[in-house]
Amino acid sequence: MAAETSEFDEFHGELRSLAAELLAKDRAVAWPVLADAGWVGLEVAEHLGGAGATFAEVAVICEELGRAASTTSFLGSAVLAVGVLNALEPSEFRDRLLAEIASGDTRVAVAFEPFDFVPDAEGADTVLVVTDAGVTEATVSITPQPVLDETRRLARVAVERPGAALSFVDESAGRRLRDRAAVAIACDSLGVAEAMLTATVDYAKVRQQFGRPIGSFQAVKHACADMYVAISVSRQLVSAAVHAIALDQRDAAVKASMAKSYACSTAVDVAGKAMQLHGGIGYTWESGIHVYLKRAALNRSLFGSPASCRHELAQRYL
Predict the structure, then answer these.
(1) Where is the Acyl-CoA dehydrogenase/oxidase C-terminal domain (predicted)?
(2) Number of structural domains in the chain
């Protein structure tokens, strides 16, 4: 088992390194580039042109996208779309869309009720509408929905004509898809928080005050230590949630709520502290910290606020 774990970690490390290298070249990565990198087909079966991987590998990419504050359509057109399609009963329609996503020939968006903030719907070739009853390929109208976070592309979707109903493999698939979306956002927030801690520590080493680096001051040390501890807890919760989603464990919903609530709140707190510790320059456009703070703030509300996640957890004890 130890050897298998080591081999698994090594593969994830290589995937993380390649993702970081690609995202370092350009924060805005187009859909064809994502397809050429093999990211959009990670969870697509091999016989359909994908990698046949699991959500654990997708989570690695989500974290790196957050670390780079990257602008891509990966969340809506790969993570959510492939997840929904894999949750459907096998059919020619499902397999065709999965193959076309893996090859980069099509972009598919997923609209969960109430359809107000749909990731990457604008420009999508197909929109899958998910309700409690199932999934339909619907004819929709799409209205771009500008938000504070300029790295995300969200839209309002209005269903004009429902398509043919597509059945989930089981009744709990809809809930699992929402948990999956929440954990993907938690991974992104973990990457955001880690990027902000790294930037703050690097700045504290070079910024001089009173003839010495500000990182030598006890208050700054304590602030960075607090950020590190909070991020360490986030990583433990996110790792547990990713594992639960990848293996479809019975307590996946609980772990997803814990990870989403804590990791997304932590990212906002860490980005705020990073801005403060950077001093005056932290409040300028040049520092770039505002990009991460806005992304963290949006992540906190996407697919379940911390308050709603805690409410769901509390219901288990009533």
Answers:
(1) 182-317
(2) 2
